[in-house]
Each structure stands twice: as C-alpha cells, then as structure tokens.
Amino acid sequence: MVEIPLLQVHNLTISNSAQNNEPLVEGVSFDLAVNQRLGLIGKSGCGKSLTCHAITGALRAPLAASSGSIRFQGNDLLAMPFAEKQQIRGTGIFCIFQSPGSALHPSLTIETQLLETARNLSLHGQAAHHALLQALEAVSLPKLCLKQYPNALSGGMKQRVMMAMALILKPTILIADEPTTGLDVITEHETLEALNVVQQETGSALLFVSHDLRIVRQTCTSVLVMDAGQLVDACDLNQPIAPDCHRATAEITGAMERLQL
Amino acid sequence: MKPFVFKRTLSGIPTLFGMTLIGFLIIGLTPGDPIEMELRRLGVSFTAEQVEALRVEYGLDKPLIQRYFIWLLDLFRLDLGTSIASGRPVLELFKEHLPITATLSVLAFVSSLALSLVLGTVTAVSQRTSVSTSLYVLTMFLVSVPSFWLALFLLAVFALGLGWFKLLHFGNAQDLILPVITLTLGNAAVMSRLVRERIIAVMSEDYIRLAITKGLSRRTILGRHVLKSILPPLITNWAISFGSLLGGSVIIENIFNLPGLGQLALQAIAERDFAILQAYLLFMGLVFFLANFAADLTNHWLMPQLKEDDHGVR
C-alpha cells in the first residue's frame, strides 16, 4: 500500500485578485510525508511566506489561492468551509511565524494565549494547566511568564512561547516560517534547540522556511528552493549540492561560500 | 490605579481654570452691552444713568479680571450668577433645561455607539459584498451631510409628509424620537467608519493571523482578540464624540424647538447673557474633562500591560 503524504500541495497559484498582474506564486507542487523535515529556502520576496500562509489559511484578501489544491490527509483545504478548516488549524497544521514580537496579542497574558490553544484540544482546568506547565518547562521558560504580557518578554522568549503553543497543540504538521529572523545568534540557537525539542516531543512533520541554508542544514533532511514565485530546485541535504543545480540554488551556495559559512 | 486617578484629577484642575478664564475674557471682550441690549429688547426708554445703575447692580462696572475672580468665588458657593435677560438664577435655568439635553445626548450616544459597532463590523468583515458596499456608501453620505440638513429632511419626510410626528412641538418623550435619530445617524456614521478602519487594521496584525492559525473560532477571534485591540482607541474617540454630541445638540434643539441647554445657550449668545454663557462653557468643559477621564480610566483597565508605566518602572 502506498502511503498518502500528509500534505500535498499541487500546482498552487497565488494571485492578487484586485490586480490583474502576474501571479505571485505560480505552479508550486510538493509533498510532505510523515516525519519528514523539509526545508524551503529562497531570497526575500520569492513567495515562501505566501505559500505558508496559503497552507495555514492565513492569506489576506485581496491575496488568494487562485488555482491548485492543498490536500491535508487527502482533503482539499482550499475548498473547505471555515468551520471545517478550524478543526484542522492548530492541531492539524500549526505555524510559527517569523516575527515573534508581533505574533502574540499585546493585551492578553501569556497564560490566556496558551490556554486558548489548550482549549482547542478540549483541555480544561487542571489538565490544561498541567499541559501549560509541561510545555513551559520543555522550552525552559519560567512559570512566572504566565502572568505576564508579551511586552515583558524578550524576542527569544516570545518565540519560545510560540514553541510552547506548538508543544501543547502537537500538530501533525508544524510550519516554521523564518522563526529565527531578527533574533541574535544566541537566541537563534536557543530557538532552534526549542524547535528540536518540539519536533522530538510531538513527532510533527516539519516545513522549515528560511533564507538561510546554514540553518536549514541543521534542521532538515531535504530542501526546496524557490525563486520568483516558483519552485526551481529540490536538493537532498545529506549529499553535497550537485554542480548542475539551478541558478538560484547556486547563488545561495555561492554566497555562503564567499561568506565562508 | 490610585496614583493614576490622582494624577489625572490634579491635571484637570488647571485645565478647567484656564478654560473658564479664557472663556470669560472672550465673552467679556465681545462688543455689545448686555444691559443696553436687554433694555432695547424690552422697548423701554432709558437714560445713561439708569444703564450705569444697572451695571453696578450686576457688577459689570468692575474690570474684567476682577469680575472673573468674583465669578470664581461665587462658583465655589455653587452660585452661577443671575441671568440678565430673565433675572433668574442661572443654576435654576440649568436645572430646567438640562434634563432634555442630557436625555437627548445620552440616548443618541448609546444608540450611535451600538449602531456604529454593528455597521463598522459588518462593513469591515464582509468587504466587497453588495450589502457592505451599500452600507459603506450610506455612512459616507451620512458623514458628509450636515446635521441640520438631516434634521430638516427627517422633519419633511416623517412629520410633514407622513405625519407620524408633530412639527416643532415638545410635550412628551415621543417628540425626542426624531432629534435622537438625527444625532444618532450622523454620529454613528462617523464612529462606524473608525470601527471599520480599526477592525481592518487589526485583522492584518500578525497576532490575529496566529489566532486563526491556532484554530480559534470566529467568535473568539472577533470577540476577544479583535475587540480587545480596537476598543482603547475607540473609547477615546467615544469620549470626544460625546462632547461634540452635546455641542451638536445646540443646532438640533433649535431646529426641533426643544427647550434644552443648547437653546438656552444660543439665546444667551444673542442677548449677551454673560452668566449663562459662562456657565454653559464651564459645563461643556466639565463634560469633556469627565468623558476623557472616564475613557482614560477604562483604557487603563483594558490595557493592563501599560500598568507598570504608572510608577515609571518598566
């Protein structure tokens, strides 16, 4: 029996419905299998984040997936009504965004924001609180954080709160959209450690988006390369990148060599 | 919370003082002598000596600044002076006229608040649908037409045309319906556009995107995450709009012939009735101050993450 991949993105095209310009993302197709750690790299503005948003359903009008399909466990997410998609969001697919500073609600305590995720799993009272504390411990955040508002936490801590959310939700697929952008090297390291913990604890399939091949190498086994809204290359990271790779891939590896990373 | 309340109350006192002083000077410096105007209005013949005697009686012979401090001292004894035109104490006149204006403003305020939240949410959430577009155009229209035009339009249609309401008559609560609707529509239109704008802005915030990704229901997203973010600026705006609603009622009261504070004030302007004008000014200042104070307190309570700022610690 052939196993159905968890996520099948087929011919995904994203365009701006308000303008009749060229699509922003065109004909993107890839599969994500159980336990797979897939990287997605490309230059800024190439459509990586848009692809993620299309998968999580967070595209904002007038941007919309104009054609193609995104199948989660065989069901097309793009054709699903809001209520049904809500069931998949969080526990099925969860996404850690690139800007921890603005991803947490400024006027709700960390506890409220974590409890909301627990409630998603029908966890209440003691059980929810227990799940919260466990998650905090796993990402080494002090218990004190619960009563605080996001503005009292550092960028790295906020990103670990996001990781804690992922730990509580234990999503089938975890998308990390440039989780280390804007963080210093030490915090970046801590965030990646936390991400590792999350992956080990939850067994989620990972889609790791970055513009930094160096970080993708640490976390993923294979990588897709995007350029100008299209998927242009796929590389196995266990082997050296082939010399006959796409121009965009060569550009990234070339830049890394020059910087001696 | 306590030091915040204390600080805000203290800072309000000089503001009110300054406002009454400036108001007093401006009213005092406007041309036109109230005594002479009143006597002319009554159609009696008078001599310069008689005018002078009345001036002394009303204390108008003293220099302006001195008159201000006399007024201020009287104020502490809750004496707002005597109206020159009617000869009655200002406080008494206020007690008589305030209920209508207060009822009108509070009703219009509450209904425009509710209406603006509904209109704003509908036009923001269901963008690019025909219902939301037509509602948006309607609010645009209501924002642009002056309130007196709207008042006359409603009177023409519902009082003259359909005969549902009596024209230029005030006797019971029913006569307040059209004035309240006039004030509500104009105010709700302005406020709903702000609600819409705020919701659209907040919906594009990353934390709303996260709330969606977390799998929260639409109700939780709108009712908790969005509402909590849009409320603080709205509350500040509501406080200001309550003040301007009171001010706007001057015109509306005159069109609908309602014996409220606005009518009293407008008449006082025509008659240079200083005492009433000064009291009206003080009243408006106090309302603005209290409304803003209430807004700040509510915001303070709504945005607990700002609490530390009170003590200057971060």
Describe this structure in words.
The complex is a heterodimer of chains A (261) and B (314). Chain A is of the alpha/beta class. Chain A has a single domain (7-258), classed as P-loop containing nucleotide triphosphate hydrolases (Rossmann fold), CATH 3.40.50. Chain A is built from 9 helices and 10 strands. Chain A has helices at 48-56, 82-88, 100-103, 110-120, 125-138, 155-169, 185-202, 213-219, 247-258; strands spanning 7-16, 25-32, 37-42, 63-72, 75-76, 93-96, 173-177, 205-210, 222-227, 230-236. In chain A, strands 6-7-8-3-9-10 form a 6-stranded mixed sheet, sandwiched between helices. In chain A, a hairpin with an 8-residue loop joins β1 and β2 (25-32). In chain A, α4 (110-120) packs across α5, α5 (125-138) crosses α6 and α6 (155-169) runs parallel beside α7 (185-202). The relative contact order of chain A is 0.17. The model of chain A has no long low-confidence stretch (mean pLDDT 84). Mean pLDDT of chain B is 83; it is low at 308-314. Chain B has 12 helices and no strands. Helices cover 76% and strands 0% of the residues of chain B. In chain B, α10 crosses α11 (261-270) and α11 (261-270) packs across α12 (274-302). Chain B folds into 2 domains: 13-76, no CATH class; 98-311, Orthogonal Bundle (MetI-like fold), CATH 1.10.3720.10. Chain B has 314 residues and is mainly α. The chains are: A alpha/beta (261), B mainly alpha (314). The interface between A and B is medium-sized, with 35 and 26 residues.
